[in-house]
Amino acid sequence: MRFVWAALLGGALFGGGVRATTLAAPALHLQECRLEHPLRLSSIPARCGVLEVPEDPANSTVTIGLHVAVVAAVNRQSSGAPLFILAGGPGQAASDLYTTYAGAFARVNRNHAIVLVDQRGTGRSAPLTCPHPDDWRENPGDMAEVRRSIQGCLAKFGARVRFYTTSVAVTDLESVRRALGLARIELYGSSYGTRVAELYMRRYPEATQAVVLDGVTYPEQSIGAQTPLDGERALRLIVARCAATTECARAFPTLQQDLTELRQRFGPERRPLDLADPVTGLPMSVEFNRGLLNAALRILSYSTTEASLLPTLLHEAAIGHYAPLAAQVIMLSRQIDAQLASGMQNTVICSEDAPGFALSADERERIAATYQGMDQLDVLGEICKIWPHGPVDPDLHAALQSEVPTLLLSGEADPVTPPQDAVRAAAGLRHHRLLVLKGEGHGQLATGCMPKLLAEFLDNPIPETLSADCLERHRPAPFFLSLTGPAP
């Protein structure tokens, strides 16, 4: 009776083209709810419920609750397949990603219900959240502090953290699909979420109608191993774009020199800095050091919105005004940290990626020459000596061959998933289209005419015929020429 009720409810929420599966499915009861923006800027009506699933796939006696939300399609007569949102991080909840960028999904939502499953360990699905040292505060190489933080997190959750891997999460997604009585679904995966989407389409191709991969990882990849090199490449492209832009080049003729001198100065040098807290306005004291500078370069490289600030902030720092750069990175770091479940992130990285971190002496030397250096990889290595490793499908890192129609999105200056990663992922996709946006960084969901293109693709998932002419008119965000704003 419960399954029949769930299937009928699915028909009411998803439109006329959905039929229930014949497989037995767990019950999922949905009730009216509102989804709130992470910064409480807005809320969205939906129907929410909790699906109980085994925490340990081999033992059904202990369960956790998966938080599921469904935003109904505006067109209740549409036969469009529901779109499942898969967030990045690892550690971000799908509900946080959606409520942050709901406007970018508005066109899609006309004909497609949006399904949000907070991946196990994130959001409201048994979150593995722990405090950890701020990137911009920590002393690179202070492994004692890292170990204390990790041991404190494990004391809170115990060895059960090992059951929060991608392989188990994909099984969860399939359980939700069945519980909602859906025959076929579409997937939007962002960043790490592209790994989840790739594994789902590998496991359940008959249930996957179309896939959008945004900020693409390829299955063979160990996420993180190449990030310092990718970050260095993106930073060079940002500086070069400023030099090639008349207004930016005129305002900051010594930008490359300023950057080089800052990197040289804040290797050994540390400076106490008093500033107003960028959120509360209260006085705060920090140390401007290599860790803070590197965090700023990394975080401000992620998108052209943040990268547009880099030239003027670097110029201010080069003449001794460090507070604007420090305030910006502190504010952005807090926003990111508030949405990431670090325990779930540790499980994914240590189980799936850290085994691929073995680097040759030459590779370590190349990475050490980047602004990020080996710091993060060494910290992750230390974490993974302690953190339990969980179940990983043996073919998780095998090349993917798929017939599922797929749209791949990349930013030319992406500091973590550059376009060559999307090229690798696309090699085994028979029906695909790869769009690379000039000058852009990580994640293209809300860029230019992309919301329109996403809706067109998901309404008619034939990637080879998708017209992307509107992207030819797109330009990345202009650089700020001072702290007051960009050129008119």
Question: Overview of this structure, please?
Answer:
The chain is of the alpha/beta class and 488 residues long. It is built from 18 helices and 13 strands. It has helices at residues 2-14, 94-100, 106-111, 143-157, 166-179, 192-203, 227-243, 246-251, 255-265, 290-299, 304-307, 310-318, 323-339, 342-353, 361-368, 375-386, 419-426, 450-459, and strands spanning 31-36, 43-56, 59-71, 83-86, 114-117, 185-190, 208-214, 271-276, 283-288, 406-411, 432-437, 480-482, 485-486. The chain has a 9-stranded mixed beta sheet, sandwiched between helices. β6 (185-190), α6 and β7 (208-214) form a beta-alpha-beta unit. The longest helix is centred in the middle third of the chain and has 17 residues, at 227-243. Residues 1-12 and 16-23 have low confidence and may be disordered.
Q: Helix- and strand-based class?
A: alpha/beta
Distance between the termini: 63 Å
**Number of H- or I-type helical stretches:** 18
Cα-atom radius of gyration: 23 Å
Tell me the fraction of residues in β-strands, as a range: 15-25%
In total, the number of strands is 13
Task: Tell me roughly what share of residues is in helical segments.
Answer: 25-40%
Main β-sheet description: 9 strands, mixed
Question: What is the residue-averaged pLDDT?
Answer: 91
Which strand order do you get reading across the main beta sheet?
Answer: 1-2-3-5-4-6-7-10-11
List the uncertain runs: 1-12, 16-23
Shape: globular
